[in-house]
Write a structure and sequence with these properties.
With 247 residues, this protein is of the alpha/beta class. Helices cover 46% and strands 17% of the residues.
């Protein structure tokens, strides 16, 4: 079964809107875990627009599954990661003016910074994933730099309009997944996935993990975090291929 990593950044977004103490991402992580999350994902941005340093340290102490720290390859953030030692670091691109992460990390254009971060983090026994576009050249570069996994950005898929466009993006993801697995990389996916468009994604052979945040947090506002996560897990399980049925 594909793992579900629940991104709780936007719980912190609500808190930071008032610079208040609530809602607390740590409490959200506990409830997400009770709902069946296989891991908790957070993005410590350079501008600290949502997740704060305090959250990272407390979540490392309280998350009982897997803690995935998304971050850009900035020296300051790498230093924090080396202190916290999350189970996994996912290197992502980052711009202060963006609303959310726009596209995948261009590994080839940032090879020096990415390689330096990977070397430091792997020396600390931290599992490394790179958030990239489903592009063969980026996959090859990720493997060559020693990443353990890649996370394909699914924004192009989730924003595609019409059956033809959607199928075209799905085929890109299928081909990229097969290519990555052939190079020995673990495959994750995320960005823009929700309770409806996640269904074809879970049917792609070889995908091990999905990281989903905005859709789950949005539903949690209405029905609670535990239920929102449980419902996402249920959708994923219902559409995950059952090997026994294919025999």
């Amino acid at each position: 079964m594909i793992r579900l990593g629940v991104n709780i950044d936007h719980v912190a977004t609500v808190r930071q809107a008032r610079r208040a103490n609530e809602p607390d991402p740590v409490a959200a992580a506990v409830l997400a875990t009770l709902g069946g999350a296989d891991g908790i994902t957070i993005h410590l941005r350079e501008d600290r627009r949502h997740i704060q340093d305090r959250d990272v340290y407390l979540l490392r102490e309280t998350v009982t599954t897997r803690l995935n720290l998304e971050m850009a390859a900035y020296d300051e953030i790498v230093a924090i990661a080396l202190k916290v030692k999350p189970d996994e670091v996912t290197l992502v691109p980052e711009k202060r003016q963006e609303l959310t992460t726009e596209g995948g990390l261009d590994v080839l254009a940032n090879i020096v910074n990415v390689q330096g971060a990977i070397q430091q983090l792997k020396a600390a026994n931290i599992h490394i994933s790179l958030f990239i576009d489903p592009d063969p050249a980026q996959i090859d570069a990720s493997a060559q730099l020693g990443a353990n996994a890649i996370e394909f950005q699914t924004a192009c898929y989730s924003e595609a309009k019409g059956e033809v466009a959607v199928e075209r993006e799905l085929e890109k993801l299928r081909a990229a997944t097969a290519h990555a697995i052939g190079l020995g990389l673990h495959v994750h996916m995320g960005h823009g996935l929700n309770y409806w468009n996640v269904q074809p994604i879970v049917r792609i052979a070889g995908v091990e993990e999905l990281n989903i945040g905005h859709s789950i947090v949005s539903r949690a506002v209405l029905v609670g975090m535990e239920r929102a996560v449980r419902e996402m897990k249920q959708v994923m399980q219902e559409h995950y291929p059952n090997p026994r049925k294919s025999r």
